[in-house]
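User: structure tokens for this one?
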Amino acid sequence: MVRFKHRWILFQVNQDPVIENGQIVYPRASLKLNDQMISRAIYNQIEIYYGQFGKGLGSVAASVPCSISILRVSGTIIFVQTAAIEWDRTYYIREQEEAEKKGNII
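Assistant:
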């Protein structure tokens, strides 16, 4: 009997637009993986577990321009949760320091 393994992925979706020549441009991260490879892998897994209906519902999210940053990959959810808490803590401290520099207090 083969055990089914799950992998947990913690990722960040970056959607910071850049304005160039009066146009809003969404920057794309240069990764060895491209958007099509990631979305194809996600859609294949959705189709396996949820069928064509689930795959159709997931395709609605494909129209949102964004980039994805992988923050942590783990075999157990507890390590992903710990990494998410640590990332949130450092992000909040960084945002708080920037706000204090500008004179805004969070």
